[in-house]
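Quick log. Single chain, no ligands specified.
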Amino acid sequence: MEFDPRRFGVKAIDAVVYAVSLTGVVFVVTAVVSTLAGNGLPGAKWLMFFLGFAMFGYASLKVRPKAAWKHGDGNDGNGGSDGGLFSGSDEPVGVEKLVGDALDAILPPRLRPANSDERPSSGVKLLLASVCILATSYAMEVVFELNY
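-> predicted structure:
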């Protein structure tokens, strides 16, 4: 498979828009929860920090390739599901599906991915989103000086 800069650009746009959208959703949810708990934005900063690290760990496990010795579920040996943590399909759900549908509606037809194989994996998008969430938490502390 040869390198296609246009396809790389589409993947980058998809991943960045997903990461920024998920960061916005996480910020709103943590701000509401923290405000209701009486901690305000400093509490949201801490919630985002811990959630960002948890997402980073989960995403780093999700982007790992399947082990070469795993050939299936052990019953038929035909390469079926191994029944592990990540045995499900990589079909978009939730925020990922909303962002994908919005990009399909906004982007011109020549820039739209022809199929789901041309989109970045959900693990890569989640990894980028976790970095954005951690960067937002850091900016809340350093730039906006939201400290306890």
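The first helix runs from residue 5 to 36.
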